[in-house]
Every structure is written in structure tokens, then in C-alpha cells.
Specification:
rod-shaped; mainly alpha; 53% helix
């Protein structure tokens, strides 16, 4: 019959030393894994950025279409609001406006523009007899 004797393990005499060779191998392996990880990270980032920009372009195109449609609608509203057929009844009915008479029309001359559509200034001596009828354009 065998008896097992239990003896305490005495590890106080053991000294742990660093294995420099294995440390160098571990550092070399870690450094060798960095460049492929960086390339993989950059490829994934480029794909994610491409998808994000695609969504952004789609949203901007949709927003542009909405704004173009809104601009068209506003131009139509402006044209409708400024239409003479709409403005004249309002001016005559609600505001009580009437067309001006010939003596109410004042021709303004602008010598700086030199426009052929503007009448020349009337000399003071001829102030009683204008050179042309009011409302007509003098070439």
C-alpha cells in the first residue's frame, strides 16, 4: 500500500526572469500586424465615406428638386399677383384710382443717360409752348 505524503511546495527559491528573445518576437509580430491593420482601416473608412457622401448627394438632389419646385411656384404666384387683369380691378374698385390725365403726366429728362426715349429739356423761353405733345417719345 502506498501512502501519499503531502509536502508543501516551496517556490520561494524560484526567480522569474524575462525572456528577451520571446519579447522581441512578440514586439516584431505586433509591429508586423500594424501596416495591414492600417490599410484595412483606411479601406473600410473610404467605403463608409463613399456611402455617406452618396446619401448626402441624394439628399441634396432631393432638396434641390424641392427648392426648384418651390421657386417655380413662387414665380407663378408673383406673376399671378402682378397680373394687370388682377391689379386693375383692385386699383379701380378698392382704391378708387383712375387713369392719369395728360396734364398730370410729368416727363423727366435725364441728360446723363442720353437715352433717345427721354425728351430734351425745354428752354425757359419756350415754357408755354412745348416742342412735343405730352406722353410722346422724342427721338
Amino acid at each position: 500500500m502506498a501512502y501519499a505524503v503531502r509536502r508543501p511546495v516551496e517556490n520561494i527559491y524560484l526567480v522569474r526572469e524575462r525572456d528577451r528573445q520571446r519579447t522581441r518576437e512578440l514586439v516584431g509580430l505586433a509591429l508586423a500586424a500594424v501596416p495591414p491593420a492600417v490599410v484595412l482601416f483606411l479601406a473600410i473608412w473610404a467605403n463608409v465615406e463613399t456611402v455617406r457622401l452618396g446619401y448626402q448627394i441624394t439628399n441634396l438632389a432631393r432638396m434641390k428638386e424641392t427648392l426648384v419646385e418651390r421657386k417655380h411656384q413662387l414665380e407663378m404666384d408673383r406673376a399671378q399677383a402682378a397680373a394687370l387683369a388682377r391689379v386693375e380691378p383692385i386699383a379701380r374698385g378698392m382704391l378708387g384710382l383712375v387713369p392719369p390725365t395728360l396734364d398730370q403726366v410729368i416727363l423727366v429728362t435725364d441728360v446723363a443717360l442720353g437715352s433717345p426715349f427721354v425728351s430734351p429739356p425745354v428752354p425757359k423761353s419756350d415754357a408755354k409752348a412745348p416742342a412735343h405733345a405730352p406722353g410722346k417719345v422724342v427721338p
